[in-house]
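@channel anyone free to eyeball this complex?
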Amino acid sequence: MEWKKLFKKTRRAHSELDERHSHPEVPKGLLKRCNACKAAILTEDVKKDYYTCPKCHNYFRVHAYRRIEMIGDKNNFEEWDRSLPEINPLHFKGYNEKLIYLKNETKLDEAVLTGRIRIEEQEAAVGVCDGRFMMGSMGQVVGEKITRAVERATKEKLPMILFVCSGGARMQEGIVSLMQMAKTAAALKRHSDAGLLYITVLTDPTTGGVTASFAMLGDIILAEPGALIGFAGPRVIEQTIGEKLPKGFQRSEFLLEHGFIDRIVERGEQRQILSQILKLHKYVEKTALNSESFRMAYGLSKVFGNAEETKNAYIKGKQQEKYLSAWERVLLSRRKDRPIGTDYIQGLFTEFIELHGDRYCKEDRAIVGGVASFHGIPITVIAQEKGKTTRENMKRNFGMPSPDGYRKALRLMKQAEKFGRPVICFVDTPGAFCGIAAEMRGQGEAIARNLYEMSALKVPVLSLVIGEGGSGGALGIAVANEVWMMENAVYSVLSPEGFASILWKDSKRASEAAEVMKLTSRDLKKLDVIDQIIPEPEPLTRDGLYPVLCSLRVKIDAFLQKYQMMSGEQLSAHRYLRFRKM
Amino acid sequence: MIKKILIANRGEIAVRIIRACREMEIETVAVYSEADAKSLHTQLADEALCIGPSPSVQSYLNMQQIISATLITGADAIHPGFGFLSENSRFAKLCEECNITFIGANSEILNKLGNKSEARNTMLAAGVPVIPGTKDPVYDVHHGEKEAERIGYPVMIKAALGGGGKGMRTAFSADEFAFAFQTAQKESSMAFGDDTMYIEHLVEHPRHIEFQILADIKGNIVHLGERDCSIQRNHQKVIEEAPCEAISEKLRRRMGDTAIRAAKAVHYVSAGTIEFLLDKNDQFYFMEMNTRIQVEHPVTEMVTGMDLIKEQIKIASGKVLSISQKNINIFGHAIECRINAESPDKNFRPSPGTIRTLYLPGGCGIRMDTAIYSGYSVPPYYDSMIAKLIVHGQNRKEAIAKMISALGEVIVEGIDTNVDYLYQILNESDYQAGRADIEYLNTHLQ
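replying in thread with the prediction:
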């Protein structure tokens, strides 16, 4: 009903209240406008939310010193190499004046800030680019500062962290700027060869010559959500190919999907994630790992004490064991409620950080990998993952990896080798994925490469078949010093269905095939294909995994005690002989 | 001086504030969400401005938008009503920074009272009784026993992370303590993975008694007597009245003095309410202080003859109180019923929709504060209260009779309301005899 015009309005008259001067106005700096959603936002909220828009969560660019405050421990930053002499190799007109102007305006000496930072008590060398200074572009001074920081980190055995934000090479310095790409990359190679950790955090924007040098060389590459990351800028690409680019092209999420970054990290969790990564890469003397004091410090004996009791209890319950046919075991290994890779990862390890991508083409979700802690010992963990629900099954491609998955696994194993940490793989796949794209990207090559490289890894490798061990797809992560099998897992050259259809032209005779194929844990133990059978309660479900985890913990500890003592050469020789005798 | 007020609220209270402003010849600005374009407050105000989509987060809670609306319309003050931003210290601070008068307590007071443990300590220091309890967490049963002895039985044992009755037990004597404590602690470890416990004195069958106060910038403070808000359903007040018949003149004076002391302790300015729990032995404990105008303020207005919204505006514009404690007389008895758009038969589920037919009662001592009209659509986004029916009689008996009569006249068609439920409570003999405590509705009439 429209009553608006019917109601009489307030008479404008002098009120009985006293006169008072009041002129409402918004003080300067109280409010901002978000450049993405255009909403009015409170400056204070922006700061509190780590320089993101409280309404649309858009990420604003952060000044270098603010970044240090956000990431590091309070008042613990030591700046390096401030005020290196500036150069103007092309005698570019107006360049010197521009530098002077920017120095005054930003209180920075160049587009990057370097120094020593502490993150939750852990030291690291750090570099932070600042977009306000000529869009963070890399000239000679930027390249020099980064190189010096990397060299110093190499010398002092510090991990290196770089927060990247850059338009690329600095045009005003021409070819000299191009050479900085090679210079920084070379310094980082030496840092890496010294066995040290390098993390990059890519922020908006990371483009051009910086992407093609230090930005993409991290052992671990993190990125902020929605950041533009690419070599050629989107406008240049559009003009060159004469096409409109798809939405989300060259954003962090796009790169994650295409295997180029390890994970996307929100600003609010960056400090914690960086700290966790540093902790998992802390240098531990190999000999110290098995010392009693180390074990005590991580509460290992206590945990295992309890575990032993639980284990005994559940083994007692298993004494009246009934006979199961091979086919029955095949069906058990495929049960919907059987624990999957991530259940083991979550149950056995702490501080798991998942790392994504093969750094070539694609992120394959049929393989999950990352770094985790096994009672204080860093471990590289790799698992073939089927997923629990139908939706997850689809996402994980029912645990059938593509070449990208094997390449990701190999990348993580090589990383483990660099940092001297053991590798534990959980095998659970019907087989490597059969598909056009998989063949185009070289499924066979990817598996072959894994067998080849895994055989010579200089760190202990353990593979555990937890469900289906389907053919080459399983072997691709099972060239290990020891291969264990869950009691009701299966491991075979081919699925029983496939076997029956090839030999007898009838896939319905799968149950018969299963008996012939010798694919159960007991058969394989007799054939010396596997080393250990892990007993399981019947039926093994996700809810009933706990006693299995307890016994696995004891066994893994024993495995690590034995193999951590061996040298890299001994380990690869051991693996060679293990498969040589087959 | 305030010439134009923006009302940052909706519904019945926005209309109530606009009416007070009209009487004071202050211009009014209504703000509204998209769902409220046809609400009475937007039509009655001199100006109206849409501030965003229907969900309150994007409209009535959108501070920047409300500040902008204030600047655009040239209003010099904001009345926040109740709920929404009325006790938000951030918002009060923003108003202060923008030189806008916030009609309510200032941000400093809001901060102080918003922090429960700090408020408790301030009150303790000012000699205001609070419910005795442990300050530090208790983990072990022997320590707990000692604390319970000090606090005085009966005690309530509460898990720090507790909720929904989990990890909560009562012990009426030392014999029961150990068992109750261990059960509560075990429950908490199982449910929340935490065994941190607190112990507090259990106030048995309490009444919810609150005192209305007014305080000006010169530090003058008066109280306007109490309201009994014990008739509650799931911690929501349903019926309020003033005065409380269970309170003697002597106790009223004692509680009133305490309320003023509590307000002084935080250097309070504006209208405010001090909430107490009163047990059967006339022991009372401070619960919290509300800095907003309250839903049930009309019952105080009826028995004192004062207009609390006008008083609030006058205080905000710097005026000194024109009355002193001895001039305040409580006359007769007033009762307020909250009429909600909800279905008591369907577990009090909200019942939004269009009102087809509406008839509201009137007559001597009957007051209806509402924003609904025939043809109005109750939106589903906000609180379900649509009207307050207030009656004033010579005494409680007459007030109850008036309320029963008036409720019997209310006709709202098109949506469900709780009018019949209220009618039923008013006719209960326990209610009529004044025997109801805060557990009453939870144990009767469910």
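from a first look: Residues 301-305 of chain A have pLDDT under 50 and may be disordered.
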